[in-house]
Amino acid sequence: MNWLKSTLSAAVGTQEPIYGPEAIQSVAKQAEETPYTVLSKDDLRWKAYQYTNVETQTFYIMADNGTLVMVQVIYSNIVGIHTTAHFNTKIFNLQGNGDHVWHSDPLTNFMFDEHMLSFGADNMTITLNEEGDSYTIKSTVNPNSLVDLKFTRKAPGFAVGKNGTSYFGTDPKNPWGSMSHAFWARCAVEGTITTKEKTYDLTGRGVFIPALQGMKPHHAAARWNFINFQTPTYSAIMMEFTTPPSYGSTKVNVGGILKDGEIIYAGAGNTITHTASALDPESEWPEPTSIKWEWTGKSADGQEVSAEVDGALGKRLDRVDVMGEVPGFIKAIAGSVAGTRPYIFQYSPKEKLSLKLKIGDTEIVEEGFMFSESTFIS
Description:
Blueprint: H1 2-11, E1 24-25, H2 27-33, E2 36-38, E3 53-63, E4 68-78, E5 82-91, E6 101-106, E7 111-112, E8 119-121, E9 124-128, E10 134-142, E11 145-153, E12 158-160, E13 165-168, E14 177-181, E15 184-194, E16 199-201, E17 204-213, H3 217-220, E18 223-230, E19 234-242, E20 251-259, E21 262-267, E22 270-279, E23 286-298, E24 304-312, E25 318-321, H4 328-338, E26 343-347, E27 353-359, E28 362-376
Antiparallel strand pairs: 1-13, 2-12, 3-4, 3-17, 4-5, 5-6, 7-8, 8-9, 9-10, 10-11, 11-15, 13-14, 14-17, 15-16, 15-17, 18-19, 18-28, 19-20, 20-21, 22-23, 23-24, 24-27, 25-26, 26-28, 27-28
């Protein structure tokens, strides 16, 4: 979203024509033949394309002591002439009695290793090990957020379809944009983040998501929904975006259900429903108050799989005004001309929800720790 701020002034007023739903080649079409692909080490390479795009590596942590954290590096290229990188950390205040610990720092002298598998900058590294199953994240970029973390994959990584990518454009052989996600949905985490107030022990469970958005963000998606749900035995993940009307308000949904050492299901047969909402007066968006997430498909051995997380979201953790730091005149023009008004709503209910999972004739119900986001852009 830092990239959205930095490119918005150049993008204001550039609403696209109505191309129709045939101008997006959803990854769901790939998934009809290949539900998912297990990630190899090569699949984790940074792309660093030389055209307008934003590439991210995002790490979510649900510590055993209840701490919820996001760590992220954003690498972006604006029309092939200006490249930037940021390192973000957010320690959520789950008690609702104070601010979140949020830092977003520009990186200098950033670069990749020769294999494009690891990323570094002054006072910061994200390193993939030789086996390709563990990342080490170290940062002293911000003295108020000293990061020393290790993520170890405990279940196979996956991308939906053949490569996890949806393509935009009227000529499928020559797309003008793309959207790509991959997942390590079940990781073991060890390490700490140290602020000026305390050191946070982040031993627990984690998720790693590499993503690439190869076009202007408000052209690719008007809405986003995301859930990361962790139980003692299972991990459930889902990411959905809805295109603007230019591409037929098409929904693209990818996700999976995993446990240690195994992908139970992964594919595009998933749905998200905002079962209740209320108008948020500041953003003027219909903020969800209850959501139902559903996964449907088959396991690797052909059994029918269905899963559900359904319930009230409780008091939101945060409402992020993405354009809060953008000058007022740009914000006003963007909202009135381009219809761009991005807000992110983040949730982690105090009342635990349950994952209801059915594999063949076996039914399992487990309570878990949830983090979810609903984003409205345009």
